[in-house]
Amino acid sequence: MQELTTYLEDYLASIDNLPSELQQKLSEIKEKDIELIDVRKQLTQDETAHKKIFKVKKRIKDIAEMEKKANEKVQNTFNRAKSIADDKIFLAERLKDVIDLHIKRLENDLSRLITNTNQQKKKESVQKVEQPQPSHSPAVKKRKAVSSTKNPVKRHKTFSRKNAPDTKSVKDNANNTAAVATVGHENDEQLYCFCQQVSYGEMIACDGENCPNEWFHYECVGLNEPPKGVWYCPDCMEEQKRKKEKEKEKEKEKEKEKENEKDNKLKDKEKDKDNKIKDKEKDKDNKIKDKDKDKDKDNKIKDKDSKVKDKDSKVKEKEIKKEKNKHKDK
């Protein structure tokens, strides 16, 4: 009963800050929503400006630079919206992690308490059958928040060995054997923390899923009292920081690839545009050349016709002269 009372006090103390922590996360998500609404408005304005540029595109020759700047502005605004959405997802996941952590702790502790209670009832019934007379052996207090298994169960944050009894004071008889079993592994030799020593005093559990040390002594991590909310050891915090940096680097690389792809498309578009202009100019030059050729051809034909006419006129003149000469001779 004492252990159950202690557990309830510890559990209520651990969730005392939960409502304010959840409220803080929800407030941050709400702020991101407001920020996202502003970004969406900006996107709408950018889209309207882009449409105006498209309308006047035919009337302005040097439109490429203006269009490029408008596209970059839209892309930057879109990237900002994506970043805000990613932040919202991260906050929601952290909120879920906090709730899941408390639920998991409650489930584990309830399971442990039920198991301990059943074992205690079974041992008490065995003691009553074997020794109906009351025993004068010293009572053994149950250790506070220490697991009956080899490793201490993560009860969200901390446990203490201050109230743990010395097993040497327990007499080695049939009655005391059951009492020692109730205490748990008093001589737990497993090593914890950075210092790689056994559990003693006040300890705190790291909330990192793959934490190698799992439990830490308060003095080794610079704590004087239980922290509020989730707690990570320095190694796990550094690991999480590295993961976030890697994710950011990947996002930057993706954005860079997108920008490069976009620039390449714009370059290809400009190149195609220049090629089309060059082709048009070539076609125009070819048409002019063709016209000149046609003119030369016409001129040659005219020259030829004029020569033929001259020849005909000369022939006629000769004939006329002949006729005149004939008349004279007569």
UniProtKB/TrEMBL annotation:
Q: Which GO terms describe its biological process?
A: chromatin organization
Q: Where is the PHD-type domain?
A: 190-239
* Entry keyword set: Chromatin regulator, Metal-binding, Nucleus, Zinc, Zinc-finger
Task: Please provide, alphabetically and separated by semicolons, the GO molecular function terms listed in this UniProt record.
Answer: zinc ion binding
Write out the ranges of the annotated region (Disordered): 118-173, 243-330
Do the record's keywords include Nucleus? yes
PANTHER family in the cross-refs = INHIBITOR OF GROWTH PROTEIN
Family that this chain belongs to = Belongs to the ING family.
Q: What is known of its domains?
A: The PHD-type zinc finger mediates the binding to H3K4me3.
What is the protein's given name?
Answer: Chromatin modification-related protein
Organism name: Anaeromyces robustus
Q: What is the lineage of its organism?
A: Eukaryota, Fungi, Fungi incertae sedis, Chytridiomycota, Chytridiomycota incertae sedis
